[in-house]
């Protein structure tokens, strides 16, 4: 077991709720009551599994991987759970805001939940377009069952882009239970990722957004959501998001952008606080 340091406080309950709400069947095991979450993750020598136990002061991680991959998996976990965040810096930007201030005070140390796999994040987001979160998880579980591979502890690894890129659209549609148009979008996304579209932190968000929007069936909401979840852009703002707009009183997207100007350069933390207040706790 490895003890991963963080800057307290760490708002554990909202993170566990979000992880459980988005858990992909076969890939993840959520246990919010025990403050634990287990999932497969990609690693240089093949799929690994990490089990994390979250506390307000630290995160304990148990890694099941090739010995040479332990450091890479730990780095993934740190980005996934935003363990290098500085809660004091976030509070300095958002704490005095009339809307965000009470939320920051209620959940000090709330993290922006990232992802361990940019392609998985993008694929599940595509599967979740215009359907409920529960339906998206069902579709993702079917995708994993049909195209994923084995991982430690009996879990499954999310399929790699090249595998989905090689699938026939009708075969994919039937296996997952999605529309033909959604299957074609998923394949186009997989082809782009197999050809070098990198959905990891450190990329230029504007360039990634441009490339995503060039794909069929991917619009601004998907691109902006992935900037927040996959790219780690701490100023990302999915202005068309329905939950975010509801939290702000249902203004048009242009007004969301204007209202969020005062939250720069940490709009992703503002969005996460508003999502959390609306959707989880």
Automatic annotation (TrEMBL):
Residues 1-23 form the signal peptide. Gene3D superfamilies: DNA-3-methyladenine glycosylase AlkA, N-terminal domain, Helix-hairpin-Helix base-excision DNA repair enzymes (C-terminal), Hypothetical protein, domain 2. Residues 1-117 form the DNA-3-methyladenine glycosylase AlkA N-terminal domain. Its EC number is 3.2.2.21. One of its GO terms (cellular component) is cytoplasm. GO terms for molecular function: alkylated DNA binding; DNA-3-methyladenine glycosylase activity; DNA-7-methylguanine glycosylase activity. It comes from the Bacteria. Keywords: DNA damage, DNA repair, Signal. Residues 127-279 form the HhH-GPD domain. One of its GO terms (biological process) is DNA alkylation repair. It catalyses: Hydrolysis of alkylated DNA, releasing 3-methyladenine, 3-methylguanine, 7-methylguanine and 7-methyladenine. SUPFAM superfamilies: DNA-glycosylase (SSF48150), TATA-box binding protein-like (SSF55945). This is DNA-3-methyladenine glycosylase II. It comes from Georgenia thermotolerans.
């Amino acid at each position: 077991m490895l003890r991963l340091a963080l800057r307290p406080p760490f708002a554990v309950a909202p993170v566990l709720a979000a992880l459980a709400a988005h858990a992909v069947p076969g890939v993840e095991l959520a246990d919010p009551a025990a403050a634990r979450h287990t999932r497969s993750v990609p690693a240089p020598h093949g799929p690994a599994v990490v089990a994390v136990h979250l506390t307000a002061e630290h995160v304990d991680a148990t890694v099941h991987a090739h010995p040479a991959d332990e450091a890479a998996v730990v780095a993934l976990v740190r980005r996934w759970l935003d363990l290098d965040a500085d809660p004091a810096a976030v509070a300095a930007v958002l704490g005095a805001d009339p809307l965000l201030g009470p939320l920051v005070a209620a959940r000090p140390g709330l993290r922006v939940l990232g992802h361990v796999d940019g392609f998985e994040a993008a694929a599940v987001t595509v599967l979740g377009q215009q359907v409920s979160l529960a339906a998206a998880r069902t579709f993702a579980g079917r995708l994993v069952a049909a195209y994923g591979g084995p991982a430690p502890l009996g879990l499954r690894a999310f399929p790699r882009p090249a595998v989905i890129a090689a699938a026939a659209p009708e075969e994919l549609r039937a296996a997952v239970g999605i529309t033909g148009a959604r299957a074609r979008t998923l394949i186009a996304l997989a082809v782009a990722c197999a050809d070098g579209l990198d959905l990891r932190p450190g990329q230029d968000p504007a360039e990634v957004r441009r490339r995503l929007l060039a794909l069929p069936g991917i619009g601004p909401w998907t691109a902006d959501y992935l900037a927040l979840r996959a790219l780690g852009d701490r100023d990302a703002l999915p202005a068309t998001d329905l939950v975010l707009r509801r939290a702000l009183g249902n203004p048009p997207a242009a007004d969301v952008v204007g209202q969020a100007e005062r939250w720069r350069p940490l709009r992703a933390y503002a969005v996460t606080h508003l999502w959390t207040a609306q959707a989880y706790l």
